[in-house]
């Protein structure tokens, strides 16, 4: 290898060696995968298959390392080899047997089943994946099985080629072999699950039916029994004038009608309009995933419409077939009965499933959002109708027949209907130039696009809100019961509140991107923590949200660990016990220096309440804060980091550093920490110092002064709060996904350090020799981590404008 690498540069050789060293453990731990992959490439090279189908071989290689190797390490090489061989052999046998069965019954599907083949190792890879899923935890086992089966069944029913049936056979073989070869996991073998998983299953079914129709519409070779839209893209080479000439001759009425219908289906606009209902089903599927009752109703209505259309099509073909031509199924000839009836079975089956799962869809939509969207859609429809009539009158010479204003008005509804559903109606006029073609073909596309976007907004907007007085009730519970050192942050604006059944505990949260993101630990009696966590998680699931506890203590993490949740450390809290605190010794040299310098400069520390402070003081604090934000050259963060708005609280104490001229050099704010109705400690929140001509060690002076003053008052501890993404004693991450997330957060902390300085802040707090306690984020669903990450980013930067975002990126790049 080194001889072949001799011509490469030093850096390139080093990289190759590193990659080889990283791949070596995977190769040694998955020898069967390596042998099978080598056999695939060898056969491809010998038969020139790799040259003609290189992308398939590359995809197979990737799947072997991403799917095959992990499964082999999980189940063992011997079981893996048996499962791979069994899946490959049985898949081909099942595919051939099914093709023969279909041919024997003359269902017209056997032609597609007799063509093509399975290239690469897709069959055995899917087989061992389904086999290995038997040993996985319930959540991932269910998701892998449902996802794979829905995809393969959709491909088989809609596209219907031999490789689709073979792959489905391989997956079913692996599904049967799993419990027998590798056993069942401790999570049990039931495929039924929580309400959220039921919603995901129904959403997958609806999305698969929609994507299957789009797939066959794009694949003109699709031959599956449900490939009813494959000819929606089939247009005609005739012009409107030619079709009118055919109709005027009266020689062939059927050809006249076929020409008119195909003119409607020709062009990009009609094509997009024809697939708009399918796109709308995808939007409805997203609403179903979120548990929206409105999405369930919309799905029922949509599939009932499809059922009615299918029934009308059957009646049209078998009752009036002699007089009326149809292109609904892309064929002018009389189809077999099964070709007309089978497409009817899909919407009937989905409606039956939706009705049986009705109890899972209980989440209400936001009424205000629905009202605004409805108004917008109606206004869009009205505007399009006015524009269509006005422009149609102005360009009436661009139609093959000159339309009147009433004719244009009557034609507006037809412009909003997908043309494939207009086969029973003859067009009154057809466009012949560019302007009229745009009006005729794109009016409906614009309307459906607006309706789809509006409907999606209705489904994704959460109907979240707290009852009147919830914030004050939460504040009373914090005072009476207490909680963690961050509990007072639950009283900040922007939070919503969920209260337990007994009314003695609550969780503060905010819903962002479908994630219910909490602020610190639940507040309530210590003995109710587990019940509160479980009840709040169930509440989130009922509302279609993803629960995520953020900046919580080890006690909450211990509870969620017993529930099978994942967790990752997101910060480290610095706690300063005040019992015997004395800033003596070498370790406190910087703190003593700050206190001594302040005394010499005539700077003193004074407690104040921001709401009742003199204007001359609050104005200086506001100016200092603005100066600090400007120096950062980045937007100010929120969520667990307070700003000026959080100072406006009579129960929050501010300690300011002022000189003899009443000039404010710095300010800190302290949040009360309650326990059993008494204040036992204080948490540092707001920290700002005058950067221009100010007393430099202001923060050391203020924190040390606060510690000494509060010690005299009898406080037990000070919390210097946690610095996001900064850790002194990182907790070891358990699990591959959690470890990967932890590494990602470390990289993010390194990137943000030049701007926000979280690690520097944590190092600064180390001057006070605090005790470090980890803070965690716990989550129920690892697959939701991208949504959780987006929610956290929006929580910290809720009002990030485009200009500020650009400025932040520029700062990160150039610093």
From TrEMBL:
Keywords annotated in UniProt: Cell membrane, Membrane, Plasmid, Transmembrane, Transmembrane helix
InterPro entries xref list: LPG_synthase_C (IPR024320), PG_lysyltransferase (IPR051211)
Compartment list: Cell membrane
Name of protein: DUF2156 domain-containing protein
Domain Phosphatidylglycerol lysyltransferase C-terminal: 478-779
Predominant location category: membrane
Transmembrane helix is among the record's keywords: yes
Transmembrane spans: 21-42, 54-71, 78-107, 113-132, 144-161, 167-186, 198-218, 267-288, 295-316, 336-355, 376-395, 445-465
Topological relation to the membrane, as annotated: Multi-pass membrane protein
Pfam families: LPG_synthase_C
Keyword check for Transmembrane: yes
Organism: Rhodococcus pseudokoreensis
